[in-house]
Design brief:
about 25% helix, two-stranded parallel sheet, alpha+beta, DUF1847 domain-containing protein, DUF1847, 2 helices, 2 strands, globular
């Protein structure tokens, strides 16, 4: 359940990331470089609105911030 989910490790864990940000009551969440599937999970669980700032892409070797 969401209540019992451990928030110790949030790296590459969209469930923990969303729950952590829900706990601090963010107003807006930005997605930067999440995999397809992880972005969907994060968006689904986020209580705040979500927008994708930088998409992950194979063309740039999954390094979206290196452009």
């Amino acid at each position: 359940s969401k209540k019992d989910y451990h928030l110790d490790y949030v790296t590459c864990n969209p469930v923990a990331q969303a729950l952590l940000l829900n706990n601090v009551k963010t107003d807006l969440n930005l997605i930067i470089g999440l995999c397809i599937g992880h972005d969907i999970t994060f968006t689904h669980l986020s209580e705040a609105p979500v927008t994708t700032l930088i998409a992950k892409d194979r063309l740039i070797r999954h390094n979206p911030g290196n452009l």
